[in-house]
Amino acid sequence: MSRISIVVISENYTDSRWCLDELAEIMECHRRFRQVVLPVFHYVEPSYVRHHRGAFGVAFQRRSQQRSYIEDADYLFQVWRRALRDAANLAGWHLKSKSEQYHVIQRIVQDVLQKLDNASLSITDYPVGLQSRAQDVIRLLKAQPRTACTVLGIWGMGGSGKSTLAKVIYNQIHREFSDKSFLADIREAWGTNRGQIDLQEQLLRGILKVKKMKIHSIEWGKAMIKKTLSGTTALLVLDDVNKDEQLQALCRSRTWICPGSVVIITTRDVRVLDALTPDHVIRTKEMDESESLELFSFHAFKKERPRDDFIKLSKQVVSHCGGLPLALEVLGSYLHERTKQEWTSVLSKIEMIPNDRVQEKLRISFDGLSDDMERGIFLDICFFFIGKERTYVTKILDGCGLYAEIGITVLIERSLIKVEKNNKLGMHDLLRDMGREIVRERSPEEPEKRSHLWFHDDVLDVLTEHTATKTIEGLTLKLPRSSSVRISTKAFEKMKRLRLLQFDQVQLDGDYGHLPNHLKWVYWAGFPLKCTPDNFYPKNVVAIDLRHSNLKIAWKEPQFLERLKYLNLSHSMCLTNTPDFSKLPNLEKLILKDCPSLSKVHKSIGNLRKILFINLKDCKSLRNLPRMFYKLQSLETLIISGCSKIDKLEEDIVQMESMTTLIANNTAVKQVPFSIVKLKSIGYISLCGYEGLPCDVFPSLIWSWMSPALNPLSSIHSFGGMSSSLVSMDIHSRNLGDLSSMLSSLSKLRSVWVQCRSECQLTQDFRRILDELYDVNVTAMETYTLQISRHPLRSLLIGMGIYYQVINTLSNSISQGLNACGSSDIILPGDNYPCWSAHIGEGHSLLFEVPQVSHCHPKGMILCVIYSSNPENTADECLIGVLIVNYTKCFIQLYKRDTVSSLKDEEWQDIVSNLAPHDKVEIFVVFGHGLTVQKTALYLIFGESTDRKMEASPKSMTPVSMLVNN
User: Which residue range or ranges hold the TIR domain (predicted)?
Assistant: First the structure.
């Protein structure tokens, strides 16, 4: 098949049926196989070809009049029209006169020669989505100064398309370099007898353009490479690097690289990039559903879309592949021309036993782990801890003696796991399946001899047949609530090494003393008993999670659990009292959320010297906290929201010297203790939802944070140790008084949200204070304007709400639109996004009115800031804060950079959901030294009331996304 087709289209082109048939075939190859098509419009306008107008249209009409002589005329004319339209939409050449003919031919020849350049590398036949990804990377490379070398890392799990992306980038930029070399499959070649020297010779042959190169030793090769690379501007791609020693031999440091050179390294282990301190590290992302289906279809059906009768099955396979290109290609090819019954059989099989070719590629990273501890951590996460918070998992696995802190870091660096939103551990489904298959294949016929048991039937067989062995280290079993299965505790007698136990709605009969003493994690949702047996608790347990239990009391006698750090009894409807805590010396986290019958907290809670977090949310029967509670000097976070019968917080709260967060919404507190202002570490206080309070309760509290000189109530309340570290206050009140003075006096206030209910009115002073808040931060910066005006504009996008993924899609369009001279109309790409409202302002602030959008509500914001800066300054380093003022609703929000990343999704969503049509809102963006804001724009995103949402990125994206374009 030809790699390039040149199509010359003239006015009378359609007079030839052979030409039309050939064009249809060429455009089909273009669609299916990405064949390059170069149209030449010979004395005819491309638009006439596209729409069948003018003389070209007349000729096509003549052809149409011959329909009665053509078999299947309707179908053929549809095919021809599409082929002509698609060809006219391609970039080509328009020959308008004979005088242009020579130059056009020269350009065509040059273009074809470049496309046929032998230096180009062979890539996949179906490069779905690769061009856009490659262009994103190339833009990064071109933004780098030519006065220095550029090092780019491409990092990701096996089969994610790292090497293919590197090849596409190489093909598109290699002509800019006279000297270049692409070293493929370094990991594999390194292990052969002469692999190391062969790679050095290959590198030098490419750079020096010689056919032969003889190197006698590794060290001699290093010297030659250093001398060669440092003396020429080169493009070097090092593919699949997995060891430091490989870079040591091929490109030891940046000092080896000539300014203007580009070095691209692909790897599964981000740590190996450290030696060259890369300028950018790109993590490969999974393909989205549309791209996945297209790539799979090319391999399974040899066309862009599945056959109509295979669409449902195709989507099931695509879902299983999780956007991994390798899996889509392998399974698509395997299923090509198979029957529906065979497809169904394959789907059932891969859910149990993953495909060998895919597993072989993925397993390279697992086998490359340095010791059994790292491999053990990976397997434990595969089976039990996907979606669990990283710190929680670390403490449990540390309790198992696995050194989890460094182990989890290594797994992240090797692309085997990732940290997702809210610090939770994530893993690609195919990596999870690989880990489970590794365990299964060790004993495929005898599940009792595996280290981890998770498959429902296998677990039930082992437990009901009493065939367990000491090999078992982890076990999970989930049963429906209606299940009548009861398991004897004797089934656990031989599991001497059982560390991790996960039950859901399981009922045991017999002596709980049969449970192994080595258990470190007990997760038992729906624990069936009213009280735990005295011999239930293993002495070395680290975490106990008995959520949704039937417990009325946790235990009758105090349990000595020296290593217990985490206790969760939340959603236990019958629990009336907390446990006795007197023998839990190392407890750090206590969760008793939504225990509506809980009426008493045991006074021994004051003995918890290492407690960091307590959640009593929605314990509606709880009337008070014992005095000993206030002696918890280590406690950092206390949540008592929804404890509607708690009517008082004691002045003794001042003893809780480590407290950073107090969330006490919707309680019955009559008086806020003024001693709270003496807490030196307090960072966030939320006191929303109070009812029936005196009008002056909250103003007194707020004034108490001020310096005595500015405090009008200082004669009544005088405090010597005011808090100076308050991060955020969230206060609802009937009358907050003079907001101007409050805002101007709060000490080190980093984030404020004050929402007034009715009486509070904005004054001129209020507006003046807002201006002052900005002036304080930018006055010193203004002097830099002249110095940095010569630097190019950059853009910063800050996304708020639920449409995070839109940020990446729209960044270029927004930036280009704002940079366009005199332009204020921005066209946002894509038909499937929600409604948009664009507002653009000059400088650092933007005043707008929220528009009325029929049947839609605000769902998110994208704030775009165009700024200029010195090259060494970036917005993510110099952003100080974002101030949002709603003049209609009378509230303000000020977020500084050091607190903004800690806000949760729902908090950002609260900001957006507070906006209503016709609200007058102003946004201020505050930068530090070295940056000058040129323009500010807000894209307000509206979605349907049915909460149609865009899915968030799988990557570790925070509620505020920052993207800097150079």
Answer: 1-116
Euclidean distance between CA atoms 630 and 652, whole angstroms: 6
Contacts of 494 (CB under 8 A, 6+ apart): 468, 469, 470
The answer to whether the beta carbons of residues 936 and 864 sit under 8 Å apart is: yes
Q: How far is CA 859 from CA 395, 806, 891, 946, 948, in A?
A: 37, 12, 19, 11, 10
What are 612's two structure tokens?
A: 């960091």
Tell me, yes or no, if 22 is annotated catalytic: yes
Mean pLDDT for the chain?
77
Angle, vertex CA 125, rays to CA 124 and CA 130, nearest 5: 55
CB within 8 A of 499, min separation 6: which ones?
400, 473, 474, 518, 519, 520, 521
Q: How far apart are the first and last CA of the chain?
A: 41
Please, are residues 221 and 248 in contact by the beta-carbon 8 Å criterion? no
DSSP-derived pairing of the beta strands 920-927 and 891-896? unpaired
Q: Determine the residue type at 106.
A: Q
Cα Dmax for the chain: 104
Entry field: residues in the chain: 966
Q: Are 840 and 935 in contact (CB under 8 A)?
A: yes
pLDDT score, position 851: 84
pTM of the model: 0.61
pLDDT tens-place string over residues 661-720: 888 888 887 666 767 767 777 766 776 665 444 434 443 444 343 333 333 332 222 223
- The enclosing H or E element of 882 equals strand 879-886
3-state secondary structure of 659: coil
Out of 22, 493, 650, 849, the active site residue is 22
Q: What is the β-pairing status of strands 486-488 and 507-509?
A: parallel
Q: How confident is the model at residue 415 (pLDDT cuts 50, 70, 90)?
A: confident
Q: Which residue has the tokens 């010359």?
A: 8
pLDDT tens, position by position, 827-857 = 333 333 345 567 777 777 788 888 887 777 7
Q: How far is residue 771's CA from residue 845's CA, in Å, rounded to a whole number? A: 10
Residue 236 burial (CB count, 10 A): 27
